[in-house]
Design brief:
Shape: globular
Strand content: 5-15%
Strand order of the largest sheet: 1-5-4-3-2-6-7-8
Largest sheet: 8 strands, mixed
Radius of gyration: 23 Å
Number of helices: 17
Number of strands: 22
Helix content: 25-40%
Length: about 600
C-alpha cells in the first residue's frame, strides 16, 4: 500500500545546489521558537499524537506506524504533516509539561494540530517546542541528515545555514471587532484567543477571519492533566463561548461514575474538566458524534468543530464547512465566533486531489465500510479523495459514520467524497488523474492486519464513535433473534440524546435484562478501568477507528468484525478465526 497513495503534493526527487539566494520568506518558516541541538527522527508517514504517542513517555505506540517504538523526546522530528485526531495538540502539551516533548517538529506541508499545541505550550505555560515548515527541497535535504541545530532564527545542518522567517500577520484583514478583541478590549482570555487565531491564520495562509455559527469542543477528555490545566486556566481568566457550542465525549459517565467504582482522582478531575467547559457556556452534550444530535448543521454552513470523525462527517456527509480544528483552538473559535478563512472553508480546497476506484466483493456485510474508510485514508494520506464504484450500493448513515471515522485514522484530510452518496461527490471528477484502487484483496489483507492473536474474547466494544439509535436497535434485535444469554461484558457507548431515546422507547430496560451495558458521556477512546473490565485480554469491536487505536490505547489485543460478529462474541466468548465467507474467494489474490 505504501507506494500506492494520493497526495496533495507531487513526489519530490531533489537535485539541488543550496545557496542563500535560493531561500525566500516562504521557504523556511518558524512558528514557535526553541534553541535546539539534537538528533533527527524522520517519520515518512504522518502520525496522530493522540493514540499514536504515549503522552507520558513520548514513545510512538501506534502499532500500524513504521516508527512504532521509537522515542521522540528531545529529538528533531520530521514528518510530512500530522494526521488523525484533533486531540494531538493536547498530547503535545502534556509532553511539554512533563519534559518528554520533541525539541522540534519540522513539517513539509501545512499542519495545524501539533503547531497549535506548541503555541499553547509556549504562550500559556512557557514551554517551548520549535515548529518549522520547510519547502520540499529543504525538507528532503534535511531528512538525509543525522542531526541539526536551531538557534537564533537559523537552521544549521552539515555545512548548511538556513535563515528562518517568522510568519507575517500584516496581510491578514481584521474586522473592527477582531481588532478590539486583539487589543484586549474583551479581556485577557479573548485577547490570547485572538492572538492565537491570527497566528494560525498566518500559518494556514489565510487572508482574513470569518464568522462561524456553532462550535464543538474536543479537548474535554481527561486523556492527561494538560487538558484540565488548559481549561481551568482559561476559565480562571474569564473565558466564555459566544456561539452555540457542544462538548465531545468525556472520560467518565458524568452522573454515575461514583456508583461505578471509578477512582475519585480520575472521576474528580474528569468532572472538573467537563464542568469547566460547561461553566464557559458550552452545552453538556458529551458526545463525539454531534451530527447525531437533534440540532445539526446544514449544507454550506460554516462551523467551528473539532474531533476528527465529526469534522470529516460534517464536511463529507452533511456538506457543512469546517477545518479539522485542533484541541484548544476549538475553544478560541467558540470564544470569538471567528476562524481563519482557509482550507475547506474555501470552495476550491474542497475539490478532490485523486480518485479511488472501489471494487466490491460479490457479497459483504457492514464490516466493509470502516475497512473502505481505513483503506481510502491509507491511499490518500494527505489529500481529499473521491471514491468511485459505490454509486449503485445502498449506504446508510451508520455506514457513512463508520467510514468517515476510519478514514480519519489514516488520512490528514478533513473530508472525502463518495460519488453518488455525498452532496459534493457528483461534482468531483478529476480529469487526467491516475486512479488508485481498492480491491477485494486489499480488504482481505486489512482483515488479516486487524485480526491477530487469540480468538477468545473478554469484552465487546461498540460505539466508537458513539453508537446511534439505529445501531443500538440493530444490536438489540440481533441479540433477541439469537435468543442467547450474554456471557461476555458487552458495552455500548452513546450520547445523552441517544440514551434518552432508548429509555423513552423502553429499549434501555431490554438491554439491561440482557446484561448489556449502555453507557453515556464516555467513548472507547477515553474509557478506563473499572468501566473497561480490568481482566480483559482481548476485545472485539465493529469500529475501524478503535481497531486502529485500541491496542496502543489499552495494551490489549483487538479483534475486528461486523456488528453480528460482535453479537456472536458476546454470547459465546469467541470470534471465528476463519476469514469471513465474503472475503474467502480473495485469499489467494
Amino acid at each position: 500500500w505504501s507506494s500506492d497513495v494520493c497526495s496533495s503534493d507531487l513526489d519530490y526527487v531533489v537535485f539541488w545546489s543550496l545557496s542563500m539566494e535560493n531561500i525566500s520568506n516562504n521557504d523556511a518558516i518558524i512558528y514557535v521558537q526553541n534553541d535546539v541541538d539534537s538528533d533527527i527522527v524522520v517519520c515518512d508517514e504522518g502520525l496522530s499524537f493522540w493514540g499514536g504517542v504515549d503522552p507520558d513517555t513520548g514513545v510512538i505506540i501506534d502499532i500500524h506506524h513504521p516508527n512504532c517504538g521509537e522515542k521522540l523526546s528531545g529529538k528533531i522530528v520530521l514528518m510530512p504533516t500530522s494526521r488523525g485526531s484533533c486531540s494531538g495538540s493536547g498530547v503535545l502539551l502534556q509532553l511539554a509539561q512533563n519534559g518528554n516533548a520533541p525539541a522540534a517538529l519540522i513539517f513539509r506541508e501545512t499542519e495545524d494540530i501539533l503547531t497549535l499545541g506548541a503555541m499553547i505550550a509556549e504562550r500559556l505555560f512557557d514551554k517551548n517546542i520549535a515548529v518549522l515548515r520547510l519547502v520540499p527541497k529543504l525538507y528532503n535535504l534535511l531528512s538525509e541528515e543525522k542531526s541539526a541545530k536551531i538557534d537564533n532564527l537559523k537552521l544549521h545542518f552539515s555545512n548548511t545555514l538556513i535563515d528562518l522567517f517568522q510568519p507575517s500577520l500584516d496581510e491578514i484583514h481584521l474586522s473592527n471587532s477582531d481588532k478590539k478583541m486583539l487589543a484586549g478590549d474583551n479581556g485577557q482570555a479573548v485577547k490570547i484567543a485572538m492572538e492565537v487565531l491570527c497566528l494560525m491564520a498566518a500559518a494556514q495562509n489565510a487572508d482574513k477571519l470569518i464568522d462561524v455559527s456553532r462550535g464543538h469542543i474536543d479537548g474535554c477528555i481527561l486523556a492527561h492533566d494538560a487538558n484540565l490545566h488548559f481549561a481551568e486556566k482559561m476559565l480562571d481568566m474569564g473565558a466564555s463561548v459566544i456561539i452555540p457550542t457542544t462538548i465531545n465525549a468525556i472520560s467518565v459517565d458524568r452522573e454515575n461514575w461514583k456508583s461505578q467504582g471509578v477512582a475519585p482522582d480520575l472521576g474528580g478531575k474528569a468532572s472538573r474538566l467537563a464542568d469547566a467547559y460547561v461553566k464557559m457556556g458550552a452545552y453538556p452534550t458529551f458526545t463525539c458524534a454531534p451530527y447525531l444530535l437533534n440540532s445539526i448543521p446544514v449544507k454550506g454552513e460554516a462551523i467551528g468543530w473539532s474531533e476528527s470523525n465529526a469534522v470529516i462527517y460534517a464536511n463529507s456527509v452533511i456538506g457543512a464547512r469546517t477545518q479539522k480544528h485542533p484541541d484548544y483552538l476549538d475553544l478560541f473559535i467558540a470564544m470569538t465566533g471567528r476562524t481563519p478563512n482557509t482550507g475547506v472553508y474555501l470552495e476550491e480546497n474542497r475539490k478532490p486531489v485523486c480518485e479511488i476506484q472501489v471494487t466490491l466483493p460479490l457479497n459483504f456485510d457492514d464490516a466493509i465500510w470502516p475497512m473502505i474508510g481505513w483503506l481510502a485514508g491509507h491511499k490518500s494520506p494527505n489529500g481529499i479523495p473521491v471514491l468511485n464504484g459505490l454509486e449503485n450500493i445502498s449506504i446508510n448513515n451508520d455506514a457513512l459514520k463508520a467510514l468517515c471515522a476510519a478514514f480519519g485514522t489514516t488520512s490528514a484530510a478533513p473530508m472525502l467524497h463518495i460519488k453518488g452518496h455525498t452532496p459534493e461527490g457528483k461534482l468531483s471528477t478529476i480529469e487526467d488523474a491516475k486512479s488508485k484502487i481498492i480491491m477485494p484483496s486489499d480488504l482481505y489483507d486489512l482483515w488479516q492486519n486487524f485480526n491477530t492473536g487469540s480468538n477468545k474474547i473478554d469484552l465487546v466494544a461498540i460505539g466508537s464513535p458513539h453508537a446511534s439509535t439505529t445501531e443500538c436497535m440493530q444490536f438489540l434485535e440481533l441479540l433477541i433473534h439469537k435468543n442467547e444469554k450474554v456471557i461476555v461484558p458487552t458495552i455500548l457507548t452513546v450520547g445523552r440524546e441517544t440514551l434518552s431515546k432508548l429509555e423513552d422507547q423502553g429499549y434501555l430496560s431490554q438491554f439491561s435484562k440482557l446484561s448489556v451495558q449502555v453507557v453515556p458521556d464516555i467513548c472507547w477512546c477515553s474509557i478506563t478501568e473499572p468501566i473497561f473490565p480490568s481482566k480483559t485480554k482481548a476485545l472485539i469491536t465493529n469500529s475501524g477507528k478503535y481497531a486502529h487505536y485500541g491496542k496502543g490505547l489499552t495494551g490489549r489485543n483487538v479483534r475486528f468484525g461486523s456488528l453480528e460478529a460482535c453479537v456472536n462474541a458476546s454470547i459465546n466468548g469467541y470470534v471465528d478465526n476463519e476469514i469471513p465467507k465474503w472475503l474467502m474467494p480473495y485469499s489467494a489474490l
